[in-house]
Write a structure and sequence with these properties.
- The relative contact order is 0.09.
- Helix 10 packs antiparallel against helix 11 and helix 10 crosses helix 12.
- By secondary structure, the chain is of the alpha/beta class.
- 55% of the residues lie in helices and 16% in strands.
């Protein structure tokens, strides 16, 4: 089994010294984290490694020596070999590179057949900065095997995951740079100076007091919202989309403003996705406000609302008058047809009277409701969904009346059909049992069955028409709900990170062969394979509070056929993944 040595590319030009890193004997792998160059005192190096080991939790040690010298400098080479007695290790790695040379020479010393076996060693160069800032994702092997030209090796995957984890845990080791006054001088990816931005550092300093203040304010707001758990306020809070969206955003703000540090990179990514999603939502909401309150568009919408309601009422009245006649040449039960038609016409009259009664206040209501868009576009869309529900409440009533009457007749016909076959439904055992009926029961059952059977076409026609209208409203509300959920759950930050800095989301690695010569170790350059966009959406998609219908199309058609109510995509307290 070949031994693998991971060497950071930032140390190619480092001065001669010793290699600091982590040794994994069970995987025969050495991860070089830096080079401590001369001059140094061995006891101070050991003390520094002990301190770093207590901070990072990584077993740090001196792996070997590093020589970057001119050809023919044998004294330095002999001195570096003698360091193996000062820093004892099972396998001492001697890496050397001649100045002006391109590739390394490597020698292994220690017990076993590994000594001087350069052809059994693989030297892997890696970008320490990218590996340090990246987060290794354990993508399932099944999803990787579905991709073309990909072979999954679970052992190598665990090796690279451990290598990434080792570099990530050693963050404290990379704090010191050449400008720090200390006994140990190291070369690593930040040895020339810390990579930082003034704006980012100022934002980090200001984030702590801002988050503390915001968390206290949100605690007070969440305390006032507890009164919404009382009935009947709780009933309206759970039914209105706007209230559900406000509660959802309140939870998001509490998560983002939490002073508790993220325990894992996944949790940190989740907070970043929530924060960016909230910013984009508010920005889109402010754009909507700027469009609404420009050129008096609120007044134009209020003026167009009442004529639109009158037009809808006129169309529904004409539809009911068509149903009260001979729709499509069908012969209906005239008495029942007239009763149902007049009943629904009266509801239309009540609804249009309600709209005209509210018409003087519509512009003021829309003006104040439009300000809710400052809380985000999703809140504005939820308000639109609730307005659609209120404006089409009469259609919902028509659908409920027709569905209940149709369901009653269907269940009555099914019960009477069992009566003809000498059967009955056993409520206790939830099954159909045999039963004997007398002549009077059969006569009454036959009479009722005939009446219901001849009245069924009239009721079914009204039920069909109002079900189609109700489904149209539900589809519109569903599309709005899908748009809201897209804004709420789409991992915008992760997608932008994948586009701008793909190495931050590591799903695997790939290698380029740099040198393959006999007597020399195999030189490979490791590069990071980023997550695909589909995996990013799947892994970092935020949970939603919406409850979508879990019924299949066959179950939905069955409900429509027997007259069961099809509820809209309402909301529940529990979150759905």
């Amino acid at each position: 089994m070949a031994m693998k040595v991971f060497f950071p590319t930032c140390c190619n030009t480092a001065d001669s010294g010793v290699l600091i890193g982590h040794w994994v004997p069970e995987m025969r792998m050495a991860v070089v984290l830096g080079v401590v160059h001369f001059p140094f005192i061995p006891n101070q190096v050991k003390q520094h490694l002990t301190e770093m080991q207590s901070l990072t939790g990584v077993d740090l040690c001196v792996l070997g020596s590093w020589s970057n010298h001119s050809p023919g400098n044998k004294d330095l080479s002999r001195f570096l070999e003698d360091l193996s007695g000062v820093f004892p290790h099972n396998i001492w790695i001697q890496l050397s590179k001649e100045k002006g040379g391109k590739f390394f020479n490597c020698y292994l010393s220690g017990p076993g057949p590994e000594g001087n076996a350069a052809d059994r060693l693989i030297l892997i160069f890696y970008d320490q900065r990218k590996v340090m800032l990246s987060h290794w994702h354990s993508v399932k092997a099944d999803s990787l095997q579905n991709c073309s030209h990909v072979e999954v090796d679970h052992n190598s995957t665990s090796e690279f995951a451990m290598m990434f984890a080792t570099v990530a845990k050693s963050e404290c080791l990379f704090v010191m740079d050449i400008y720090d006054q200390g006994p140990v001088k190291m070369t690593h990816w930040q040895s020339e100076g810390k990579e930082a931005s003034i704006v980012v550092e100022l934002a980090k300093m200001a984030s702590a007091p801002v988050c503390t203040l915001l968390s206290k304010l949100l605690f007070l707001v969440s305390g006032t919202t507890r009164t919404f758990n009382l009935w009947p306020v709780n009933f309206f809070w759970r039914k209105l989309s706007t209230c559900g969206q406000l509660g959802y955003r309140l939870e998001h703000l509490q998560t983002v403003s939490s002073t508790k540090k993220a325990s894992s990179p996944s949790e940190h990514m989740r907070k970043a996705n929530i924060f960016v999603s909230f910013l984009i939502d508010v920005f889109l909401g402010l754009l909507l406000i700027s469009w609404l309150y420009r050129e008096n568009r609120i007044g134009q919408m209020a003026d167009a609302l009442v004529p639109a309601a009158d037009h809808v009422a006129k169309e529904l009245t004409e539809l009911l008058e068509w149903l009260m006649g001979a729709p499509a040449g069908l012969k209906m039960n005239r008495a029942l047809d007239q009763v149902l038609g007049r009943f629904f016409l009266y509801h239309i009259h009540l609804w249009i009277s309600y709209i005209h009664l509210m018409s003087p206040f519509i512009e003021m209501i829309l003006w104040y409701v439009g300000l809710l868009a400052s809380l985000g576009l999703t809140v504005a869309l939820s308000v639109i969904s609730d307005i659609i529900a209120l404006l089409t409440f009469h259609i919902y009533c028509f659908y409920v009346y027709g569905a209940r009457l149709y369901c009653l007749m269907v269940h009555g016909l099914s019960s009477l059909w069992r009566l003809f076959r000498g059967k009955k439904w056993n409520v206790l055992r939830q099954r159909v049992d045999s039963c004997s009926y007398d002549l009077d029961q059969l006569f009454i059952g036959t009479l009722l069955f005939t009446i219901l059977l001849f009245l069924l076409p009239t009721v079914a026609l009204y039920y069909l028409v109002f079900t189609l209208l109700r489904l149209l409203v539900v589809v519109v509300q569903g599309l709005i709900r899908l748009l809201v959920d897209l804004i709420n759950t789409f991992p915008v930050f992760s997608i932008l990170l994948r586009v701008c800095r793909a190495y931050r989301l590591a799903a695997g690695v790939k290698f380029h062969v740099l040198s393959q010569e006999s007597g020399r170790p195999l030189h490979l350059l490791m590069q990071i394979n980023p997550l695909t966009f589909s995996h990013i959406v799947q892994m970092y998609r935020l949970p939603t509070y919406s409850c979508y219908p879990q019924d299949s199309w066959s179950a939905l058609c069955r409900k429509l056929f027997v007259g069961e109510l099809i509820y809209p995509w309402h909301h529940k307290n529990e979150k759905q993944e």
